[in-house]
Each structure stands twice: as structure tokens, then as C-alpha cells.
Amino acid sequence: MAQIARWCLLALVLVGVSSRSQDPAQAVHKQRAQNSDDFLFEVKPRVIAAGETAVLHWSIKGATKVVIEEASESRHELYTVGTFGASGSVQVTPKENTTYVISCEGSTVSCASATVRVRVK
Asked: Structural domain tally of the chain?
């Protein structure tokens, strides 16, 4: 599962190189969302002030295991947020811009990401 997340993060970086007008994480997420109603991964709000929380929400039809990991601007490695079921939500309070990567196993093997931007007060 961790290997899938790393490949997903690599894909996000490559998408970012070819698509400078969009946040690379959102570009991949939008592509997934347009291709299937069976896969949803989103964050609200996408921009927060330092100390505020955002909510990650997902629903992935056919998933038996969902892992969410995070990579912040200063820590470029993926760290596990948690392992979850096919649908749910979790609150996050990042201290800096952070990308959350979701990977799933089951009848659907997919990944996507969402980024929370943190405004400094």
C-alpha cells in the first residue's frame, strides 16, 4: 500500500510539471472525479489559516482498505494519517501547506490527492 502511495505522489509531481496552471494534486483529483462517480476524495476548505482545521472526505466504491498519508512542504516524505474504510472523513490541522494522498485496495485500486493551503497569520 505504501508503494502505491509513493507512485501516486510521483505521478502528482509529474502532472505538476506538465500543468503549471493548476495545483497538481487537484489536477489528478479532478481527473478521477470526472471519470467516475464511484471515487470521491476532497478537502474542505482547501485554504485555512494557521491553527484552523480542514476536513478530508472520501467515498470509494469497492474499496476494502483506504490509507491516507500526508506530505508537507518541509517534510517531503509521506507520513501515515490513518487506515480507514471505504468512506468517511477526518479532520486535519496542518501547520503548513500539506498534500494528502489517498490510496485504496479492493475491487478498485486507485489513488488521488488533495492539498490544504495554510495562510500564515
From this structure: 1
Single out the residue of 101, 98, 99 nearest to residue 111, CA to CA. 101
Torsion sign over Cα 71, 2, 63, 80: negative
Phi, psi of 9 (to 5 degrees): -65, -40
**Model confidence, pTM:** 0.74
CB of 64 within 8 A of CB of 105?
yes
Question: What CATH number corresponds to the domain at position 94?
Answer: 2.60.40.10
* Side chain identity at residue 106, one-letter code: G
SS3 50: coil
pLDDT single digits (tens) 66-76: 999 999 999 87
Residues 6+ apart with CB under 8 A from 6: 78
